[in-house]
Amino acid sequence: MMLRCVLCGGEDSDGCEGCGGAGTVTITQCPREAITPDTYDFIRLADWADEKILPCGGGVLDQSAGFMDALRYFRNVQNELKADDGKTA
Ligand SMILES: [Zn+2]
Q: What pLDDT sits at residue 87?
């Protein structure tokens, strides 16, 4: 399975840590095997965030910058996959 690199958006970006400048990433294993337990935990938190339940008390400004960055990245990837309908770049 070949996917557009989500780090550089598929642009031919030399030095991209995600694809090395190829613009695509090849997955040769079951995608589920590449997902760590921490990633599954994050996905559950992102689902709760959709319900306006955030991991830390308070509002958006009370959340860690890391969580908010990861949530933004996750949403961008989801939107890109929806736009591509899972097709290869
Ligand atoms: Zn890349």
A: 64
